[in-house]
Design a protein that fits this description.
endopeptidase fold (from Nostoc punctiforme); five-stranded antiparallel β-sheet; 10 helices; about 20% strand; elongated; PPPDE_dom; protease; PPPDE domain-containing protein
Length: about 240
């Protein structure tokens, strides 16, 4: 009995803690494998987002029904210490015409016919003849349009490498052939990029601009008129230079 009691005591004091330690190791091993095995879970589609407030948080973004999930992006963002500032730039394709005639024609004030882009890492990213990016100042000279607005969207921990991988995955979705001034344009790309970088898209004023105009009986007339007087609206940035 004495020998049995000693062995029982030793088991309780030594083996149970060891078993608990092994259990914790197994759980830790499973979690590590869950994170690192299977870098891309769903592809092609839009990766999950990471932003300043919660750099390890993941958000689903969808573009035309496609969804991306990159665990590598999550791990990269989690180790990125310094956040990057994200901006949106807006150019008025109508050069002020929309603001002048919209109250009479539409019955409400339309500030501009917007072309937008994302500014981050010192570059400006846009959609026209596919997805392109240029140094910010160079892009302004290419558009030959005055910058009407430069809006701070927030900070992100997404690195340039992760973001470039993301936009590479969107080349088919935002191809030169898919561009349409009214239905699938620069504003839709800017919205997707902003949501990926910050967890939040851009204002509806830009994304649903055309739908708002078409609510007015005279809206289609205005869109047709602006297309005629603003040729660059239908082919903005259709240039052979730039990084794609």
């Amino acid at each position: 009995m004495f020998t049995y009691s000693i062995s029982t005591c030793l088991f309780k004091k030594c083996h149970i803690p060891l078993l608990l330690m092994n259990f914790k190791s197994i759980v830790r091993f499973c979690l590590i494998n869950y994170i690192f095995i299977g870098n891309i879970v769903a592809f092609p589609s839009v990766p999950k987002n990471l932003h300043t407030a919660q750099p390890k948080r993941v958000h689903t973004v969808e573009v035309r029904g496609n969804s991306y999930l990159s665990r590598a992006a999550i791990m990269t963002a989690a180790t990125q210490e310094k956040p990057y500032q994200v901006y949106m730039k807006a150019y008025d394709l109508s050069r002020g015409i929309a603001a002048q005639i919209s109250p009479t024609l539409l019955g409400f004030q339309l500030e501009g016919l917007w072309h937008t882009s994302i500014v981050i890492y010192g570059n400006e990213y846009l959609f026209g003849s596919g997805i392109s990016y240029y140094p910010e100042k160079q892009c302004e000279s290419i558009t030959a349009l005055p910058v009407s607005r430069r809006i701070y969207l927030g900070d992100t921990y997404v690195t340039p490498e992760v973001f470039h991988s993301y936009i590479d995955s969107l080349k088919e979705t935002f191809s030169p052939e898919s561009y349409n001034l009214l239905r699938w344009n620069c504003n839709h790309f800017t919205n997707a990029a902003a949501e990926f970088l910050t967890g939040k898209g851009i204002d509806d004023e830009y994304v649903h601009m055309v739908e708002r105009i078409e609510q007015s009986p005279q809206g289609k007339i205005l869109l047709s008129f602006i297309q005629q007087v603003t040729p660059e609206a239908t082919n903005i940035l259709q240039v052979p230079t730039g990084k794609q």
